[in-house]
């Protein structure tokens, strides 16, 4: 299907979903009339929405209503908003302390997604953008999360070289993850960008599961190898305080 047709179908499907949102239940005829489409078109558009549980159709009446999938999306969205709100104070405090860019990310295997960024306006700006993705194996935030994931998370992970410093051998990555768990923080030593170093630590939730990571990033001229050792405990401390605010059990 041409891209233009796919885009039009997506807009129509979203219009159907949005219209159902305001009603307790709509028949196929009512829904088709409301969105100005034929019943056969509405049936075609709603099929994948029902399959994804974004819509439900009553087996007896045939009426459409929102499905459980919308609740899951809403909960995921709220959880992300809560994480940003909880982490905001510590992220700003960390930036003020180290005078480097601070990132907050969540895990979306095989990537991390940047959901917040606090910059030191006097420094060179980092290229990262909120909403952008990074590879888990080549970023400090990714490795900080990956270190606490089950072994299956490594299976089939494409260890693509991003720079000449990227870890591309599974055994070397496993050894690195073991080291991260032991010291409590991860380092990206020019593995994702050739002139950037990053130090990150994992964030745990109330179930003691890693749900995110916080990091400090900067040019190698500012974040030297010696400074990495100073930043590690500071970033780990910020991550620990965020984790406690998320309800992580104390040990």
From TrEMBL:
The keyword Transcription applies. PROSITE patterns: HTH_ICLR, ICLR_ED. Residues 7-68 form the HTH iclR-type domain. Residues 69-248 form the IclR-ED domain. Keywords: DNA-binding, Transcription, Transcription regulation. This is IclR family transcriptional regulator. The lineage of its organism: Bacteria, Bacillati, Actinomycetota, Actinomycetes, Streptosporangiales.
């Amino acid at each position: 299907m041409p891209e233009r047709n796919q885009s039009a179908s997506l807009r129509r499907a979203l219009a159907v979903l949005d219209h159902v949102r305001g009603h307790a239940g709509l028949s196929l005829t009512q829904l088709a009339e409301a969105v100005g489409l034929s019943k056969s078109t509405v049936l075609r558009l709603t099929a994948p929405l029902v399959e994804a549980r974004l819509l439900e159709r009553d087996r007896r009446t045939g009426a459409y209503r929102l499905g459980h999938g919308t609740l899951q999306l809403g909960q995921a969205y709220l959880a992300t908003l809560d994480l940003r709100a909880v982490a905001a104070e510590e992220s700003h405090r960390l930036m003020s302390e180290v005078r480097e860019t601070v990132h907050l990310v969540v895990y979306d295997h095989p990537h991390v997604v940047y959901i917040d960024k606090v910059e030191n306006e006097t420094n060179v700006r980092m290229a990262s953008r909120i909403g952008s993705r990074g590879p888990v194996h080549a970023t400090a935030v990714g490795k900080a999360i990956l270190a606490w994931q089950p072994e299956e998370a490594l299976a089939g992970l494409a260890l693509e070289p991003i720079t000449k410093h990227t870890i591309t051998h599974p055994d070397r990555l496993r050894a690195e993850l073991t080291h991260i768990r032991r010291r409590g923080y991860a380092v990206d030593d020019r593995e994702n960008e050739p002139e950037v170093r990053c130090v990150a630590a994992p964030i745990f939730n109330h179930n003691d599961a890693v749900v995110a990571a916080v990091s400090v990033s900067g040019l190698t001229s500012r974040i030297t190898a010696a400074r990495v050792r100073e930043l590690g405990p500071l970033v780990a401390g910020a991550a620990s305080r965020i984790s406690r605010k998320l309800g992580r059990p104390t040990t």
